[in-house]
Amino acid sequence: MTQDTPKAEGIVLFVDIDNTLYSKDKGVDALMGERINNYFQTKLGLDKEHATELHHRYYKEYGIALDGLLRHHNIDIDEYNRLVDDSLPLDKILKRDEPLRQMFQRLDRTKVSKLWLFTNAYKTHGERVAKLVGVDDLIDGLTYCDYYHTPLHCKPKPEAFEKAMKQAGVTDKSKCWFVDDSALNIKASKKFGWAENAYLHYPGAPEIPAGTPGVVEISHIEDLPKVWPDLFLPEPVKNTNGTINGTTNGTTNGTTNGIINGTNGGINGDGTNGSTNGGNPPS
User: Fold this and answer.
1) For this chain's UniProt record, which GO biological process terms are given (predicted)?
2) Cα(153)–Cα(7) distance, rounded to whole angstroms?
3) For residue 182, what are the domain limits?
């Protein structure tokens, strides 16, 4: 736990970013995959078939294709990030998601100490997505894959979960709850000992047997209050004039959460409180 990361006394809700904060049908993962394949072709001199094959082999072996590139090839990380992650036209694809925002505002902060993003992407991608979908001011922190620190600590490696706990200021695994669209990451979380896991299961994705202890299945992130009702406050009742009871400055229950790129919490470059500097598209 870093000095400026307050200890989490209650539950820390760790949430994946890509294909989780927004739906997979947005096509971001496909665009990311195309850019990674193009990078393999242009920088490694491979044809399309062999580039795709190596991309997926590295992804399966290391959890993120970049890890394989760093291990086996001499690449420029700045160039990779510029040509892949930062080149995605997210501002044309993603928009403010009011239902998502309202759901996060309903978290019972007497039970949930922190809402923490946990991604295999780099910090710049993570903060772009959070801002575009309109939840950046509700997030208490971000754990991202630091492309400049090798070996890479990314999901599903145990080191990634250890890093997330340290940055979020939580030492008790029973207080770690996790949402992700990757069956591999959910299984890794369960094996690591995190208490509760919500698998955002898309059609055609790998199955996790129904009834697996500590794992629930959802089809959309907004299903969380249905499967974990104890973490959320009741939906606010709208008055006849359309306003909502029990809100202050747009937040439910009169609470104001951390702010990315601001004060009162938010995300530092190291994933802790302050301003942000930083699933799971094909990585």
Assistant:
1) nucleotide catabolic process; pyrimidine nucleobase metabolic process
2) 22
3) 11-23+96-252
Could you give the angle at the alpha carbon of 210 between the alpha carbons of 168 and 105, nearest 5°?
Answer: 40
Q: What confidence category does residue 251 fall into, taking pLDDT thresholds of 50, 70 and 90?
A: very low
Say if residue 84 is in the same domain as residue 127: no
As a whole number of angstroms, the distance between CA 177 and CA 63 comes to 21
Q: Which of 91, 111, 135 is the last residue of a domain?
A: 91
Residue 73: pLDDT above 80? yes
Q: Kindly write down the DSSP assignment for every residue of 183-199, as one continuous string.
A: HHHHHHHHHHT-SEEEE
pLDDT digits (tens, 9 = 90+) for 194-223: 999 999 999 999 999 999 999 999 999 999
The domain total for the chain is 2
Whether 221 maps to a domain, the answer reads: yes
With a cut of 80, say whether residue 161 has pLDDT above it.
Answer: yes
Measured in degrees and rounded to the nearest 5, phi and psi for residue 230 equal -70, -15
Residue 231, domain CATH: 3.40.50.1000
What is the CA 278 to chain-centroid distance, rounded? 11
Q: Quote the tokens at residue 29.
A: 């993962």
Cα distance between residue 85 and residue 73, in whole Å: 19
pLDDT number for residue 283: 62
What token pair was written down for 39?
Answer: 């990078």
